[in-house]
Design goal:
Order of helices and strands: HHH
Strand content: under 5%
Number of strands: 0
Number of domains: 1
Number of helices: 3
Low-confidence stretches: none
Mean pLDDT: 79
């Protein structure tokens, strides 16, 4: 069991840390520095949004990858006649 003297010591040493944490707390309504909350609220907050984001991303990447590989293929085979 923890004695009362040890409890008081722990509380006394933790008090400055708690005060420092409160002093560094972000004021209500202040802008967040991270973009993650915006991205989360836009794309991942609901299942429908998440699935739509994944499907749209897959379609976009398929079109982009297909166009890029076709351009590379045509560029490498430019001098070959059929």
């Amino acid at each position: 069991m923890i004695s009362s003297a040890l409890r008081q010591t722990v509380r006394a040493s933790a008090a400055p840390l708690a005060a420092a944490a409160r002093a560094q707390a972000r004021p209500v309504g202040a802008r967040q520095m991270s973009a993650f909350p915006t991205v989360y609220n836009t794309f991942f907050k609901s299942n429908v949004r998440y699935v739509s984001f994944v499907v749209a991303g897959a379609v976009f990447m398929e079109v982009t990858y297909g166009a890029a590989t076709d351009a590379i293929w045509e560029g490498l085979n430019n001098g070959v006649s059929e």
